[in-house]
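From: lab user (bench 3)
To: helpdesk
Subject: output format question, protein + copper (II) ion

Hello, I'm new to running complex predictions and I'm not sure whether the block I got back is the full result or only part of it. Here's what I submitted:
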Amino acid sequence: MADRRFTRRQVIAGAAPALAALPMAGLVAAPALSGGPPAASAAHPSLGHAAMAGDVVPAPGGPGDLDDLLTPPPALPHRPGRVRRYTLAAIDRDIEVAAGVTFPAWTYNGTVPGPVIRATEDDILEVEFTNAGSHPHTIHFHGIHPANMDGVFEIVEPGGSFTYRFPARPYGMQLYHCHAAPLKKHIHKGLYGAFIIDPPTPRRPAREIVLVMNGYDTDGDGENNFYSVNGRAFYYAKYPIRVRRSETLRIYLANLTEFDLINSFHLHGEFFRYYRTGSTDQFEYTDTVMQCQGERGIIEIDWHNAGRFMFHAHQSEFTDLGWMGFFDVADD
Ligand code: CU
Ligand code: CU
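Helpdesk reply: Thanks, we reran it on our side. This is the complete output you should expect:
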């Protein structure tokens, strides 16, 4: 166990200087000295989160790149029996998960996480799935549905296809992921996404975003080297999410991290309502929530103050390895 932890600390130790000096190629090149002496505390200095904002942050991609994953399709009014169609394809694709760091992902439609699927309760969800990847895959949805729509026994071979069709229920923040074996690998490689089911009575108006927490084992040692929300380390530190103080911010949050049993979301300077799974009206008022693997919920923030507020995993190690960002709250 000590060796496993140490391996990852080496990566952290290698990350700090690399983050300070672009490019970050040194990150992947940093050797895992699992047999070496323990690193001195001076060997892994703080990254200086407060300063880690804006253009100085070595996050991959440009502004707006993740908008399709951040902003869900709009909620539609309750109309039982309406068909909601989505098309998903499993595609092998190398993606840049941290600046200069490529991960050989298995994706739905080319991104990790996959596209946000949204339906209103009692819609008929119809998802046409094609396996254009190199391994057998499925789509397993969380929620209530017939046994033959569960994506466990209906394995779709490469080149094959399958259409999932079932009424969307219950309302809440659900999720979907591949359920082919070995499960840990198929999920970790990137086959997952957010699945929102809206209640029959609409939620009150809000600015809505999706944050899917994940991790990447980029050196194949069975533990994560990077963490993110919506797929790219430090992305929302480089490009803070702009919100209005007068507008409730609703976050659909899910945890698809493999290898680490829990992940968490912590917001600075503010409290929020947290609806676990989002399928009832019950909430808790807090500033930190933790989610086990596959857990999800809905956060609602009513801002008291304008300004820049950090959000991040409260596992500090995850923060240092990419899972952090900012909300820029504008007074209006
Ligand atoms: Cu799979
Ligand atoms: Cu699951």
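A quick orientation on your result: The CA atoms of residues 80 and 122 lie 5 Å apart. Let us know if anything else is unclear.
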